Amino acid sequence: MAKSVDEFNKKRLRSSNITVVISIALVLFLLGLMGLILINAQKYSDYIKEQLVVNAYFDENYEAKDSLKIAKLEEETFKKIQTLAPVKKATYISREMASQEAKKSMGIDADALFEENIFPSSIEVALKPEYVDPAKIDEAIKIIKSVPGIVDVKNDSTLMVEVYNNLTKILRWILGFSILFLILAVVLINNSIRLKIFSKRFIIKTMQLVGAKRRFILKPFIIEAVVLGAIGAVIGLLALFGVWYYFTNQIGSAFVQNNQQYFWLILLVLGVGILITVLSTIVATWRFLRTNVDDLYYS
């Protein structure tokens, strides 16, 4: 009879642990998924911002005899602009290239359209994402315009501001959902742990009544919480990166290439899983340690 009771208790304990691990894994999977989306959304946002360029123009009025001198000056200016703090990437566009681009945009292939290259040479500058901010774009333009050889800097400021504001709104929504999922993770994992500890409330109280110290009672529960939290986090991460690998293969893009960010995400999910599980275990166990024996039947 005693053997059958022990087997029943072991099965119930095993079932309880599996339920807790699955709950932790599912919650951390969703939390990790929001983390991946947030990381990649930030990178994609930076990529879009880098496509918003400003054009720095050279002086178009010079005599043919000064062409070599001007070419050297433009080369020095181009190298100087590449080293500026706001500049992510710079592309030199010669007068010939500008004329060809103009013909192409007009849909005209005739070389006789222009007797000479009437468009000035320029430098197409992609700014770093932080300088696309409407509050800093004027500063970036001023820095570029101060470079010797540049006579004018033009940009579509309205488009830049509109794109920047829209991307900022999207990132804020994603960040808000990430925080919401973090709160849900805390609540759901805490409820799973409380139910597990609730099933052991009489064992906890019995240990206390026979003289066991609170620290001694808490220790095995905390160790078990660390193990369950770690296992749940690992399962959740395996499922997360499995789904993400399949998704990126389907669309043919790996998105973020920076493995360091993935590493920190793994540490975050693992840390959150263990931390919430341990804290929930301590709080739930401490509650029953302070509860009277009679109240255990009504907890």
TrEMBL record:
Domain called ABC3 transporter permease C-terminal: residue spans: 177-292
Record keyword Lipoprotein present: no
Gene Ontology terms: biological process: cell division
Subcellular location: Cell inner membrane; Cell membrane
Iron is among the record's keywords: no
Similarity comment: family membership: Belongs to the ABC-4 integral membrane protein family. FtsX subfamily.
Protein function: Required for cell division and gliding motility.
Protein name as annotated: Cell division protein FtsX
